[in-house]
Amino acid sequence: MFPESNSGYSYEDCKATADWLLAQTDIRPAVGVVCGSGLGGLADMLKDQVAFNYKDIPNFPQSTVHGHAGRLVFGTLKGRPCVCMQGRFHLYEGYPIQKITLPMRIFKLLGVETVILTNAAGGLNQDFKVGDIMIMKDHLNMPGFAGNNPLAGPNDERFGVRFPCMSDAYDRELQQLAMDVGQELGYADFLKEGVYCVLGGPSFETIAECRMLQKLGADAVGMSTVHEAIVARHCGIRVFALSLITNQAVTDYDSEEKANHEEVLQIGKLRAEQLERLVSTMVTRIEHNFA
Ligand SMILES: O=P(O)(O)O[C@@H]1C[C@H](O)[C@@H](CO)O1
Ligand SMILES: Nc1nc2[nH]cnc2c(=O)[nH]1
Fold it and tell me: Domain limits at 131?
């Protein structure tokens, strides 16, 4: 099953896509950003934009989820060259896991050294509030426990090793930088850190599932990011990730709360400005070999 599931996402396919993109723009991005649900406004921060609809990019999947525009935007952020995915892919859209993570390998071949992954997530930690921004310090990969890992299948050493380490998946210096920048910007009250758990979705969690995830040590639950982080780390990209807590996971059978995508998008809009400021300030402080 594995060789077939990997077909169409080979090194050569990724290289062809990266070369196609590099031929269309002079921007050589060192930072890649992935916008989570409702967080597409992050791409609007870029100046001198060169944007591509996913449907026009060879080998690229299409965005099918409301709140994920489906555009790859190149541009500069305070002079720093960046590329931004305005919309990401999820397992529940029906794509093979290798396909949803393909952009990380294309980022690598574009020259990206650091990715900033963002997502909307349900809060499991009782100290979290809706609107909090959680710096991801680690993850629980539930689909991975069942064998659905983006690195399953033949390994191409040109990307990375067969058995990559994940105990350092989320760059600690970048987490500290986010904390420092957050403090400076006056975000201390809503800046948290924690463990993100990925599930397959698209159904939101049951009460019993939320209680179980809390016991396992998860602070937030979502449907993305982890697969991208694994593939990015495999090919040597530094990863920083954050979750916007858009709803509180329901853990009480008397609760009237019901998770829904509209609320997720709405909370994204409310925090958009602060998220943009946090990410853009971080980008200006990350050390890179900018061309
Ligand atoms: O792309 P992200 O992880 O931000 O999207 C989350 C998970 C689901 O796709 C959706 C649920 O509202 O938001
Ligand atoms: N799985 C999951 N994903 C989310 N994305 C935003 N909120 C949630 C949530 O409560 N659960």
Answer: 2-285
